[in-house]
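Structure first, sequence second, as always.
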């Protein structure tokens, strides 16, 4: 191929993203400089954090510029290498963006173990799985017999959180959107209980359901959604509970917490002496080899399950991304280029 295709940011979203916020662009293949490799991307990842990159605001990472490709991790084969340690045909991963091809510095790419499906580098053994592992290892302080709850429980982060906690001897409660996802949580990922948050109109009703599933209270809430799940679970936290905070997807479209609910939320944190820790996974990449050494063999042996939702064709990326932000995916969302 002599051309590359990219999904670019056409305009800044106003609220939830819509198809018109993206554009499909065709251009020539990029030049490869010394110390760089050209990759033909086969798959790339779609993740909630990308919604934040679409805003023109100061954050922990740069915003995507208008007309620039959307950011993201991908996998693919090396077409041209001018970097030591890489050869044509090598299977690699790196921050390729939403592109059919990408040029990366050799230091920014990583060769993959070809005994595992390449897509695992984007999900269960990639940033999502690593996020779950870091959050629990460094901020969860898990103890056997405790109770853990996590929302978006069948997504790549939530599913890993549940399986790691279960293997550490905790009771695990899944909160997911829909009966099918709740069934998946218990039957595939081994959660002890699963609650369909879509069955409840408000935090009060959801809270009662969580209380039944966690009769001894919640010791660890792995926070990745915010919204009514957070409102529902905070009063159920045990004294000294821990909340690793990695995202608030329920508010990514611009929704805000009502002012009259904030006092209750802050009071719960105070009186329960909760430890709430914001975590950005990119701060912890020095621990990634340890994660891979510990979790990789378990994935290879089938001891950790994972599920992928694959959109076919780069042009389907915006549609799949929009649906994912609304909970429309079943498992890790990937685009097959």
């Amino acid at each position: 191929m002599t051309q590359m295709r990219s999904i670019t940011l056409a305009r800044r979203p106003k609220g939830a993203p819509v198809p018109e916020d993206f554009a499909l662009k065709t251009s020539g293949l990029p030049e490869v400089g010394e110390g760089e490799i050209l990759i033909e991307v086969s798959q790339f990842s779609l993740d909630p954090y990308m919604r934040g990159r679409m805003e023109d605001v100061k954050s922990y990472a740069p915003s995507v510029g208008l007309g620039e490709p959307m950011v993201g991790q991908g996998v693919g084969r090396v077409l041209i290498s001018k970097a030591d340690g890489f050869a044509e045909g090598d299977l690699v991963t790196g921050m390729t963006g939403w592109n059919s091809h990408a040029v990366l510095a050799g230091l920014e790419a990583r060769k993959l173990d070809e005994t595992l499906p390449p897509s695992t580098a984007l999900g269960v053994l990639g940033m999502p799985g690593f996020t779950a592992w870091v959050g629990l290892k460094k901020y969860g302080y898990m103890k056997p017999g405790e109770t853990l709850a996590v929302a978006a429980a069948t997504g790549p982060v939530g599913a890993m959180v549940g399986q790691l906690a279960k293997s550490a001897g905790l009771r695990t409660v899944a909160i997911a959107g829909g009966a099918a996802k709740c069934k998946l949580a218990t039957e595939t990922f081994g959660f002890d209980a699963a609650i369909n948050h879509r069955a409840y109109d408000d935090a009060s009703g959801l809270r009662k359901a969580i209380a039944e599933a966690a009769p001894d209270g919640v010791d660890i809430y792995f926070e990745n959604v915010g919204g009514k799940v957070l409102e529902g679970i905070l009063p159920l936290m045990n004294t000294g509970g821990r909340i690793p905070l990695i995202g608030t997807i329920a508010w990514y479209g611009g929704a805000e917490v009502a002012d009259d609910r904030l006092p209750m939320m802050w009071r719960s944190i105070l009186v329960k002496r909760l430890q709430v820790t914001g975590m950005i996974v990119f701060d912890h990449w020095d621990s990634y080899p340890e994660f891979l050494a510990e979790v990789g063999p378990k994935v290879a042996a089938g001891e950790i399950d994972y599920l992928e939702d694959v959109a076919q064709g780069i042009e389907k990326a915006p549609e799949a991304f929009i649906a994912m932000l609304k909970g429309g995916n079943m498992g890790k969302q990937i685009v097959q280029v």
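Margin note: The radius of gyration is 20 Å.
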